[in-house]
Amino acid sequence: MKIRKGDTVKVIAGKDKGKTGTVLTAHPASEQVTVDGVNIVKRHQKNRRVRSQGQIIEKSKPIHVSNVALVEGDTAVRVGYQVTDGKKTRVSRATGKAV
Length: 99
What we know:
Elements: E1 8-11, E2 20-27, E3 32-35, E4 40-45, E5 55-60, E6 63-64, E7 68-72, E8 75-77, E9 79-84, E10 87-92
């Protein structure tokens, strides 16, 4: 998977198309990423104690990695790999610079 935790990505498909955010978690087994501020859902939580109130919690759910693209500068770019001196590094397909 070419997108990692901490990357800044732009959503290129789906209901949040055009939004940008930071990858909070990456799930390689299911090919999904959780992006901060994208795919927000509301979950109702019951009260835990006798005199406390329940609440509605908003949280980000994972989206498929094919629906996001890495951001370099202010544009979305595709990511490739390049092997130099036995080390594999991620590079931008558009510019060839290391990401």
